[in-house]
Amino acid sequence: EVSTEDPETAFCTLANREDLNPEEGSIHHCLYQFTRNENLTETNKLLCDVCTQRRYGPKNNIKSEKKYVYTNAKKQMLISLAPPILTLHLKRFQQAGFNLRKVNRHIKFPEVIDLAPFCTVKCKNVAEGNTKVLYSLYGVVEHSGTMRSGHYTAYAKMRSMNNRLPDLVLRGQSPQALETEPGKGQWFHISDTQVQAVSASKVLSSQAYLLFYERLL
């Protein structure tokens, strides 16, 4: 979908990104890099239909003559609709010659994360004036092993019911504050048929592959 945005706010976020100073090797740093502002120049220039029509006339003539105008541009991927459930999938492999190698590096992640620095200033389901979009961690999937074989386990948090989350899911209502308290609840580690209570610190030290957060604010 292509839309015309106010150039003054097109690259603005709900909270100042520059205040983040994210630590390398953290989920904040991953999100910061994924949503960074990119300059499209040289071989990455953007095909501009408006510029092409100005120079060569109507589209039907453009296609027949195969003439196009490319222009420098800026690109940034930001969140335009804050989801009720946030799922973060970490890339756990890298190219090593002709082979793929698993990345075993620990990525730091918090129990409560604020997405505001990664949301567009016109985020659709955030109440006007809000500068925080908070999410609480409730599930982690971890993989042990290599690219060829391994084992998946999970951490899940037993917590009080988030009574307003269905409204957010079904009707997209913008929450002022949800009832869930992120600090309360018991974490469990699940491996096949084995279930064991664990501490939050154990969860936060895991080698996360998938992270599941639910929206609080």
TrEMBL record:
<keyword id="KW-0378">Hydrolase</keyword>
<dbReference type="GO" id="GO:0005634">
    <property type="term" value="C:nucleus"/>
</dbReference>
<feature type="domain" description="USP">
    <location>
        <begin position="1"/>
        <end position="216"/>
    </location>
</feature>
<dbReference type="GO" id="GO:0004843">
    <property type="term" value="F:cysteine-type deubiquitinase activity"/>
</dbReference>
<dbReference type="GO" id="GO:0016579">
    <property type="term" value="P:protein deubiquitination"/>
</dbReference>
<dbReference type="Pfam" id="PF00443">
    <property type="entry name" value="UCH"/>
</dbReference>
<dbReference type="InterPro" id="IPR038765">
    <property type="entry name" value="Papain-like_cys_pep_sf"/>
</dbReference>
<dbReference type="InterPro" id="IPR050164">
    <property type="entry name" value="Peptidase_C19"/>
</dbReference>
<protein>
    <submittedName>
        <fullName>UBP16 hydrolase</fullName>
    </submittedName>
</protein>
<dbReference type="GO" id="GO:0005829">
    <property type="term" value="C:cytosol"/>
</dbReference>
<dbReference type="InterPro" id="IPR018200">
    <property type="entry name" value="USP_CS"/>
</dbReference>
<dbReference type="InterPro" id="IPR028889">
    <property type="entry name" value="USP"/>
</dbReference>
<dbReference type="InterPro" id="IPR001394">
    <property type="entry name" value="Peptidase_C19_UCH"/>
</dbReference>
